[in-house]
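To assess whether the prediction recovers the assembly geometry, we first specified each molecular entity separately, as shown.
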Amino acid sequence: MAAATSTPRLRFWHNRRQRRLAIQAAFLAALLLLILYSISRATRLSLGFDFLNGPAGFAISNHWLVEVDAGDPRWRVYLAGVANTVRLVIAGIILATLLGVVMGVARLSGNWLVSRVALVYVEIFRNTPLLVQIVFWYTAVLLKLPRIDAERDFNGVVYLSNRGLALPWPEPEGAILPWLVLCVAAAAAAYYVRRRRILLDERTGRSGAANRWALATFLALAAVAFAVTGLPVIVDSPTLFRPDVGAIEYRGGMVVTPEFMAMLLALVVYTGAFITEIVRGSIQALARGQTEAAMALGMTGYQRMTLIILPQALRTMIPAVTNQFLNLSKNSSLAVVIGYSELFFISGVVINNAGHAVPMFIIIISTYVTLSLLISAAMNWLNRRVQLVGRS
Amino acid sequence: MTTQSLTRPVARLTFARAGRWVRKNLFSSWLNSLLTVVTFAVIAWVGFSVIRFVLVSADWTVVEANRRLLFIGRFPKAEEWRIWPALWAVMAVGGAAYGRWAPFARRDLPVIALGLLFVFAFFAEGTAALLVGVGVLLAAAAYLGGRFVARDERRAAVASRLILIAGALLLPVTVVLFTVASGVRTTLWGGLLLNIMLASIGIAGGFALGVPLALARASTMPVIRVTATTYIELVRAGPLIAWLFLARFVLPDFLPPIGPIADLHIVARAMLVLAGFTAAYVAEVVRGGLQSLPHGQEEAAQALGLSGFQTTWLIVLPQALRAVIPALVSQFISLWKDTTLVFGLSLLELLGASEAAIAQQRFIGRQAEVLLFAGFVFWLVSLTMSRLSQRIERSLGVGER
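The predicted structure of the complete assembly is given in tokenized form:
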């Protein structure tokens, strides 16, 4: 018996401290047993990470930042997949936030028709599985577009077909780096002008229109620099390329594949519906006096929204919206179903080709954890800034 | 004083009144008028396209011909009789609960009408119509029964208990009914039925595991708290589809070689994953409820001489769970939508069955019809659940401060 107490009838489990120790020891023992058992089973599996250096044996056509071909090691192809995930998540977060804020404001609009449209949007897209929406956009909408040789174009500038959307895209040419450096200098000048206008505003009491002045300064300086450095950016327009042998394809410009478009569309529309509700909730949570006070000051509806309501609602919004961003980044893995080559799809191909499921899953989960931590860190930084601005 | 003056003045719809409403809500300023006109044009265009598609250009035979596949997958025809009693039981318990707690309100009408219309559109002829009809009659009778017992407080208390027990028994009874006496292996469950079974098992398992997990995370014993926290945070860090693929590729190597567990097939493994995944999220929701309780509750329970177990079971949990019912329901709605993810494991749930239907030679190119149908079914169930949650919220007075 563990405890030697003076009264013989008292057992060790009557002592709170000893009972807690015993419970934890038993729990730890059970946990250790489970882990030992798992390890004993796992020894039959390959657990090393060496396979990542082997040649991938497959390439992905849809890459961004990281160029790969079939001879590259597996880790490089995986990295290309991560880049594709990041591209999807960043575009998704920006567009979903825009859609959510617009729809959230529309939901509270005094215009009956507009608020009803926002309500119907939320009720439809929030309550339907994301995967159904992804498959719907992909197979029932985007793959049903005209074939590429049907030449559905818009004055030869933008092409849209079941092979994707081809857009004109700026391409750097020549002295891009000097121009970028000059742009940074222009931004610094704009910042200085903004400070001066704010000081003027404070001194005279008249609106200094600081942001407008800053923007105009920046644009003017950047444009001058653009001309001086010899127009270092050209617009690359897509064209239809018809080879003598083989399939027609788009050449040049920016080609958005149907897989990426379907994922982006579905993620944005789905997450946007949740953000709409968050925006509506945080605006409604504001005291009604805020709107009334702004009206009493003679502000227009637009001024009320951008200067009074949204900045304050933002504070209560951020934690919930962060959660939605995390959901969006995790939901990007659903692209595996329509074959968009993001990290999860690529891991699936690697596991199918080479096995090594356990180490691959460790890598996958670590990647998602890193992604989540990055998003959380960025949003926490934003949160702190907003809170400080609010109290100053 | 006549009784007339005590009632609210009847708002008569006149042209003047309608005109005022339109001016105030649609044309209050020139910007608003422009917004109204543009929105109306968009609505008209979208509405017209959708209606034209649904009524004219869509060919719904793909859904009609694949009714069986979409609803029950490859469930053997000879064993179909097992489904009907389960369906009746669900409808009866649902009807009774509806009558007992949430007497019919006019805003429920569209959902009920849609549901009935939908059911009868698909089981319009033959024995199926008869069998569904029996279910509807049972539900209606149970509803009336529920209304009847709700009038008397003592009867209502007994009935509440009975309905809750019956509700808790629904899932185990259904599983037994499907599998008993050389029944249907889970690999043959499919279609909407599989979604419902996956979601139910996920909910039951997730709740049963999630509440202890939340308590463990709130525990003052470091070993237990750290383990629970690690589990919850790890599960929430990865996407569900990754955990499902883990169940497909990795789990078989780790299952103990004991009897039937050794070769647990993919449907059962998916159920395990869904339950374990939901548990982590339920635990976080319940933790919120635990934290919302004032500390005095626990101290008062201790002052009354209640043991630790009694304090948790009788004082803390009932109040914590009550506070988080809305959040729990929205968790379950998201689980319901997430059951489509087993499509990634090539299971024939409703989305998988839809894809299988499109793959048939004679229905090539009918993606929109089938996917709209599947989406509509999921939507209807989610909407019903969220309405239900609003009802419960109001009747419990949660959220009213």
